[in-house]
Design brief:
Elements: E1 2-6, H1 16-22, E2 26-29, H2 42-54, E3 64-69, H3 75-79, H4 84-100, E4 105-108, E5 120-124, E6 130-134, H5 136-146, H6 158-169, H7 173-184, H8 196-205, H9 211-232, E7 235-238, H10 257-266, E8 272-277, H11 278-281, H12 289-296, E9 300-305, E10 307-310, E11 319-322, H13 331-347, E12 356-359, H14 379-399
Parallel strand pairs: 1-2, 1-12, 2-3, 3-4, 4-7, 7-8, 8-9, 9-12
Antiparallel strand pairs: 5-6, 6-11, 10-11
Helix pairs in contact: 4-9, 5-6, 5-7, 12-13, 13-14
The structure holds D-mannose.
D-mannose binds next to strand 4.
C-alpha cells in the first residue's frame, strides 16, 4: 500500500513540507482552477508537476504526483447535452497529456451537480475536536424550505417531513445561511461552486434525467474514455457517491456494490476501475467493504481510508465522520483484504501491485482548531489517521 496525501495545490494551507513530515510520498492533486470539460494542457500539468518535483530542493524527500483527484466529468457529459461530445474529446486529450507526464491513476466521479455533501463542517465532539456531519433532518429542511424544491416532500416520509418542518422553524437566519453554504457552495475538490440560484437552474436541466438515463450516459462516457485510458496504460477509478443515496431528487448511481458491478461488467477493461472510499460506501450498512475489496479488488486502483458512524441503518440516514479506527468499518479487516489483493497481484506479476491509499479526511484536533485548513483536510487530524493506518498496515504486513 502506497501512502499518499491530498494536496490542493499552492494555496493549500497544508504544505508539501507538511506532507513530507507526515511521511507520505505520493501526492494526490488536481488542476482545480480549470473548469470541468476543459483540456488539461501539457503546460498546466507540467507547472503543477514542477512544483511538486522542485520541493526536493528544500525538503530532501522525493515527492511524486501519483494520483489525479479528480479529472472532473462535466454536467454536459452526465446529461449528454450541450458540449458533451467536445468535453469527452477533451477528456481523452487530458488523459493523453497526463500519461505523457507519467501520471497513471485518475480518480473522478459521476455525481450530478453536487459532489460530496455535508450539512455541518465543524460538528463538535465531546473531546472538543470537530468533524463533519450529514444531518438528514437539516438536509430535508434545506431541500423543502430553503431551496423550496418542487415535489421535495414526496421524497421523504411523513415523519421526516414533520421533523424537518419543526427543525426549520427553530433555525436562526445565520443557521439557515450556514446550512445553505455548506450544502451548495462546494466542499474541497468539488468541480464547481454554486449559489442557491445556480442549483435551481441546474436542477431544472436535470428534470428528465432518470437513474436509467444517467447510467446509460455513464456507460457511453466510459465506452469512449476507458479504451483510450487502456491504450495509454492508465487506471481510471470512479469515486463512489458521497453520501451514497440520491440527493435533491437527483439520481446517484455509484452507491452500492451492485452499482459498481454493473459498470465493471459493462466495460471489462482494467482501465475501468474503482476508488474504494470506505467513508462514502460505509454510510450504507448493506455495503460490506471487506467483501467488496475481495470481490472487486483487481480493479481497485485507489483507496480512501476513512470511517463513519451511521446514526441509523436506514437509507438515507444521518452520519458523522469518526476517527479512522472507530465507526462502522472494521479497518483492520479491510486492510487485511487489501493486503491479500496485493499478494495476488504480486503473484500475477502486476506492476500496479502496490495500491495507493490516502488517509481520507480527519478530525480537527490540537492546532488544527487554530489553523484554517480546507474542510475535512486538516494537517494533524489526517496525520493521526495516517499514523493509525500505518500501524495496522505494518503489523499485518509483518505477520503475513
Ligand atoms: C472528498 C473527496 C471527494 C472526491 C471526489 C472524487 O473528500 O473524496 O471530493 O475527491 O468526489 O471525484
Amino acid at each position: 500500500m502506497k501512502e499518499t496525501w491530498r494536496w490542493f495545490g499552492p494555496d493549500d494551507p497544508v504544505s508539501l513540507q507538511d506532507i513530507a513530515q507526515a511521511g507520505a510520498t505520493g501526492i494526490v492533486t488536481a488542476l482545480h482552477h480549470l473548469p470541468a470539460g476543459a483540456i488539461w494542457s501539457e503546460r498546466e500539468i507540467s507547472l503543477r508537476n514542477r512544483e511538486i518535483l522542485l520541493s526536493k530542493s528544500y525538503i530532501n524527500v522525493d515527492l511524486k504526483w501519483s494520483v489525479v483527484e479528480s479529472l472532473p466529468v462535466s454536467e454536459d457529459i452526465k446529461r449528454q447535452s450541450g458540449d458533451w461530445r467536445t468535453h469527452i474529446k477533451n477528456y481523452c486529450i487530458s488523459l493523453e497529456n497526463l500519461a505523457a507526464a507519467g501520471i497513471s491513476t485518475i480518480c473522478y466521479n459521476f455525481m450530478p451537480i453536487l459532489d460530496w455533501t455535508r450539512t455541518d463542517l465543524e460538528w463538535k465532539l465531546p473531546n472538543g475536536a470537530t468533524c463533519m456531519r450529514f444531518d438528514l433532518i437539516d438536509f430535508i429542511a434545506f431541500d423543502m424550505f430553503i431551496l423550496n424544491r418542487n415535489g421535495a416532500c414526496n421524497d421523504y416520509s411523513e415523519d421526516l417531513n414533520l421533523e424537518a418542518k419543526k427543525r426549520f422553524e427553530g433555525m436562526s437566519k445565520e443557521t439557515k445561511e450556514n446550512l445553505t453554504s455548506n450544502i451548495v457552495s462546494g466542499l474541497p475538490g468539488a468541480a464547481a461552486k454554486f449559489s442557491l440560484k445556480d442549483v435551481k437552474l441546474h436542477l431544472k436541466k436535470y428534470e428528465n434525467i432518470t437513474e436509467r438515463i444517467l447510467r446509460t450516459n455513464f456507460v457511453s462516457f466510459l465506452k469512449e474514455v476507458a479504451p483510450v485510458a487502456h491504450e495509454l496504460g492508465l487506471r481510471l477509478c470512479c469515486h463512489p457517491d458521497d453520501p451514497p443515496f440520491p440527493l435533491l431528487g437527483l439520481p446517484r448511481i455509484m452507491s452500492t456494490e451492485k452499482d459498481y458491478k454493473i459498470i465493471m461488467d459493462e466495460i471489462p477493461l482494467k482501465s475501468n476501475g474503482i476508488t474504494l472510499c470506505s467513508g462514502s460506501l460505509g454510510v450504507r450498512a448493506e455495503n460490506n467493504l471487506i467483501k467488496m475489496m475481495s470481490r472487486l479488488g483487481d480493479r481497485v486502483h485507489f483507496l480512501h481510508l476513512r470511517n463513519v458512524k451511521r446514526e441509523s441503518d436506514m437509507v438515507p440516514n444521518s452520519f458523522y465522520e469518526e476517527e479512522h479506527l472507530k465507526g462502522n468499518t472494521d479497518m483492520v479487516s479491510l486492510i487485511r483484504a487489501i493486503l491479500e489483493e496485493e499478494k495476488r497481484r504480486r503473484k500475477n506479476k502486476r506492476e500496479d501491485w502496490s495500491i495507493p491509499f490516502r488517509p481520507d479526511h480527519g478530525h480537527n484536533i490540537l492546532d488544527d482548531l487554530k489553523r484554517k485548513s480546507k474542510p475535512g483536510y486538516p494537517a494533524i487530524g489526517r496525520l493521526k489517521g495516517l499514523a493509525e493506518l500505518r500501524g495496522i498496515l505494518t503489523a499485518l504486513s509483518n505477520s503475513l
